[in-house]
Amino acid sequence: MTHRMRLVDHVAAELHRIGVRYVFGVGGANIEDLYDAVHRAPGPIRGVVAKHEFSAVTMADGYARTTARLGVVAATSGGGAMNLVPGLAEAHASRIPLLALVGQPPTGQEGRGAFQDSSGKAGSFDARDVFAPVSRFCVRVSEPAAIAGALAQAITVAQTEPRGPAVLLLPKDVQQARIDVPAMAGAAVPAGTADPAAAARVRADAAQAAAAGTSRVPAVPRPDPASLAAAVAALQDASRIMVIAGEGAAGTEARGELAALVRRLGACVAVTPDAKDVYDNRSPRFVGVTGVMGHREVEDCLRRADACLLVGTRLPVLARGTLEPLLTGMPVVCVDPEPPFVPGIALLAGVADTLRTLARRVRPRPSACSAHHSPSLTGLPPVSGAATDYASAVAAIAEALPQDAHVFVDAGNAGAAAIHALPAPRDGRFVVAAGMGGMGYTFGAGIGAALATGRRTYVVAGDGAFFMHGMEVHTAIEYGAPVTFVILNNNAHAMCVMREEFFQGGARPENVFHPSHIAAGMAAMFPRLRVTSADNPAQLRSALRGSNDGGGPALVAMDFDHRGIPPFQPFLTASASSRAGSGATAPGRHPINEQEHAHDQPIHVG
User: What single-letter DSSP state applies at residue 223?
Assistant: First the structure.
């Protein structure tokens, strides 16, 4: 028995069937039929219209990171499609499962001067060449009958390790076509499916149903037996083990398995900057954050260890900082679907299953951690006449933050301070877009998370990030998302100013802005938005606590001096050297310039 329906109605029904509750995006002529189908679909699936396609992707990203489900974004052709690229690049680098449904001009107009043609015909560029590098799977659906297999395969690939975005390019006439759909159609993987046998059957069904030319679905990764044996031997022989856990452990919901293995190994635990929530920050085993925004206790603990276990991280430059010389002198085991960026024994497999396997094979041992001390906050040099320092502001945020809230931290000096000093909530996510590090990511991502979970979500961002994508506050108002936007305003691209000062012979004026009154401006634009301008940490704490009690969004802004140095290792090293140096230097011959490229080259971060 079959049903005849529009192709887009089938897509909407399949998304609803696998548990998708929101389709984020921006409308347009070549995607309007899909939005119509989502609007008409039975059940709790809803379209959310963002202000910009980049933010729509990050909404789907935030949805996926807080639910461990597939995030979905939809956009029209042309500029709308191109605006998806940076958000998909972040999801690809951070391995976030997304599905992008991208409208295209009708097939009959391809290569004939169609508006926004990206078919690759008659001199137009091919959208597949644009999206392929930032996706795990990209297919143009040119025949309506191919949608069942292509959709199933895209959903499966997005959720198969290494996870990431999948893209379906949907011409308008294909979207409108009517297709025969079996009553029990659909081979897509339900969100959260963890049964390998079921997943294998789904992949086989999807491969058979996929249209010719679609990409091969990767197999579920399992650890190589020889590598597994070598890893167990390395961990057994070690007397002190240091565990460094990353976003992959949080994204695959492997926190419980991680904690169980840590107890069995008697290990100490550090986390990468994008994974503060993957291990209890208040545990006696927790030693802090790794990398250029982290804590000196991590390096101290690693010096005492004789083996290191990486979990859910490849340990990129941002996360490893000055740890690389120490890691080259000890056995390193990496549990991750992809190989690490440092030499070691790679267990290329699913994180949770591999952690359970290791826990069964290694013998339990007593804790080798020293007496616990909270990770120390880096002492920052005072700034004459500066506004409230970041450490005081972050302490106020910590006092107000609900322990079931989600936190999304943006790039820049404000982000560095939060990564360093803000403890992750016990029962919520602490998210940093460390894949591409794009400014403004948090405004969409925080909204997606808040809508997905209904929990109060904090967005911590500077004015630079706000001016890029802060108008998504309007989206939060429209949909009643419980987001508190915390804008730490230093009227500058201050991290760029710091780089100019320390590494380029002196700060230039273009990255320092005329003062802006963000709270006053947002209050005038949006009378329904709860807005507060805080002058000190006490006011900031009070305003944030007030935002927790009401529904919908709120915004709190606070001013800082752009000369305040954040807890960012290259800046702190340069500042200390500058204060210890003698006299002024000629422009272009700043002594720290040479130092960064000589001493700090392994931890150079943009």
Answer: -
- Return the bridge partners of 554, or none: 484, 530
Strand partners of residue 451:
none
pTM above 0.85, yes or no: yes
CA nearest to 222, candidates 308, 161, 155 = 161
- State the DSSP H helix or E strand holding residue 269, giving kind and residue range, or none if neither: strand 268-271
Count of Cβ atoms closer than 10 Å to residue 578 Cβ: 16
pLDDT of 260 higher than 90: yes
Tokens of 498: 């710091």
Those residues with Cβ within 8 angstroms of residue 133's Cβ, 6 or more apart along the chain or in another chain: none
Tens of pLDDT, residue by residue over 426-471, are 999 999 999 998 999 999 999 999 999 999 999 999 999 999 999 9
As a whole number of Å, the CA-based R_g of the chain is 25
Q: Give tens-digit pLDDT for 3-25.
A: 899 999 999 999 999 999 999 99
Question: Which three-class secondary structure state does DSSP give residue 453?
Answer: helix
- What's 483-544 look like in SS3? EEEEEEECCECHHHHHHHHHHCCCCCHHHECCCCCHHHHHHHHCCCCEEEEECCHHHHHHHH
Cα 48 to Cα 32: distance, rounded to the nearest angstrom: 13
